Inverse folding.
């Protein structure tokens, strides 16, 4: 990662923060965007609320050449279908999908100039495996997967790779309400490897996809889910 310019949207907590620490250790030059500066990260930070400000205006300190873009913001809005309204679906689409589209639009010229950049997005195991109460986030993340494959095909002639990581339940601040008290034991047991994920588990795959070692990987949805999506 030495000498590579990497933009991480949503590096202040959870998987995004774990990834920023990982890449910083590897010598990457980091650019971050979000509502607050990530702690413990040396980066050029740009304030951006993905639901409010136009990306092109917010992402105004990008370098001429970018070698990687990671879009990490996400939502967990788990409710019965009857308690979800259309606005809930709009909100999840805005954060998970439209924010990713906006950031890719803003960063595309700099990514294209690298002649070998990597874009990493995030889906969820629930986009593949039917799970009750997940209809809104499943819709949004399924759209992320469609975006990943379509852009991978469109950008391939420029050697610009696009992949998505699809985690299962991961121990982040966003998912904390799902792991309190006795819930953690039950969540662990739902996974074939008998534990929920850690931010480092997911960040490790994202870092790999950004690296030159993954230079022949594009258009993939890679499950990092403790076996949840394929094993019983």
């Amino acid at each position: 990662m030495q000498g590579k310019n990497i933009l991480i949207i949503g590096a202040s907590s959870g998987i995004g923060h774990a990834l920023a620490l990982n890449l910083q250790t590897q010598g990457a030059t980091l650019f971050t965007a979000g509502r607050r500066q990530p702690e413990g990260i040396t980066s050029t930070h740009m304030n951006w609320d993905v639901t409010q400000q136009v990306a092109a205006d917010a992402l105004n300190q990008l370098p001429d050449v970018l070698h990687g873009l990671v879009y990490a913001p996400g939502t967990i809005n788990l409710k019965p279908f009857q308690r979800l309204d259309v606005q809930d679906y709009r909100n999840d689409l805005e954060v998970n999908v439209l924010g990713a589209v906006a950031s890719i639009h803003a960063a595309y010229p700099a990514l294209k100039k690298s002649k070998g950049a990597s874009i990493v997005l995030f889906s969820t195991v629930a986009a593949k495996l039917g799970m009750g109460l997940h209809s809104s986030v499943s819709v949004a993340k399924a759209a992320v997967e469609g975006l990943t494959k379509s852009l991978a095909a469109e950008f391939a002639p420029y050697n610009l790779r696009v992949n998505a990581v699809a985690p299962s339940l991961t121990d982040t601040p966003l998912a904390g309400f799902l792991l309190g008290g006795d819930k953690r034991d039950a969540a662990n047991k739902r996974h074939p490897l008998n534990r929920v994920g850690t931010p480092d588990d997911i960040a490790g795959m994202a870092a790999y996809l950004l690296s030159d070692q993954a230079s022949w990987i594009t258009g993939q949805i890679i499950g990092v889910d403790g076996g949840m999506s394929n094993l019983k």
